[in-house]
Structures are given as structure tokens and as C-alpha cells.
Amino acid sequence: MNTTVDLSRAEWVKSSYSSGDEGQCVEFAPGIAAATGVVPVRDSKQSNGPVLLFSSVAWNSFITATRSGQVEAR
């Protein structure tokens, strides 16, 4: 996996599983994922903070497990 990803033009989307009370909020950049096969994920409260990079395969597995209840969203 290429871990050098240009995030300067990333458009971030808040997860639908994030709470609406500005609590635990996760954002991802689907446009970057579509272009690179790498899904950038960050804490929406720290937009200039660290970004985790996941392969699209790993991210899709996580989303599938979360939706099916195998992973508890808190």
C-alpha cells in the first residue's frame, strides 16, 4: 500500500455512525479512496490532526462488520 497520499484537496465526509452531539466523530475522504485505493480516516474534532490510512479492502471489511453488528459502534 502506498502511504504517501496527497490530502490537500480531500473532501471529508462525517460517518453516519458518528454522534450528532460533537462527541465521537469520524470522517473519511471517499474521493481519495476512489482515486488511490487508500481510505484516509480522521477525528473530525482534530481536522489538522493525524490521519489513519486503510486499504480499501480493510475499510470495506470494517464497514461490513459494523453494519452487520459484528463490531459495536459507540
The total of beta strands comes to 4
Q: Give the helix tally.
A: 2
Shape: globular
Order of strands, main sheet, comes to 1-2-3-4
Are there runs of 5+ residues with pLDDT below 50, and where? none
**From the helix content, strand content and strand pairing, which structural class follows?**
alpha+beta
Mean pLDDT: 85
Largest sheet: 4 strands, antiparallel
Strand % is: 15-25%
Distance between the termini: 29 Å
Q: Give the number of domains.
A: 1
Radius of gyration: 12 Å
Q: In sequence order, what are the helices and strands, one letter per element? A: EEHEEH
Approximate helicity band: 25-40%
List the helices and strands and how they pair.
Layout: E1 13-14, E2 26-28, H1 30-36, E3 38-43, E4 52-55, H2 56-67
Antiparallel strand pairs: 1-2, 2-3, 3-4
Task: Give structural attributes.
single chain; 74 residues; alpha+beta; 2 helices; 20% strand
Write a structural description.
Residues 10-67 form the DUF397 domain. It is a single chain. The protein has 74 residues and is α+β, with helices and mostly antiparallel strands. The chain has one domain (13-67). Helix content is 26%, strand content 20%. The protein has helices at residues 30-36, 56-67; strands at residues 13-14, 26-28, 38-43, 52-55. Strands 1-2-3-4 form a four-stranded antiparallel sheet. Strand 3 (38-43) and strand 4 form a beta hairpin. The longest helix is centred in the C-terminal third of the chain and has 12 residues, at 56-67. The chain starts with 12 loop residues before the first strand and ends in a 7-residue tail after the last helix. The model has no long low-confidence stretch (mean pLDDT 85).
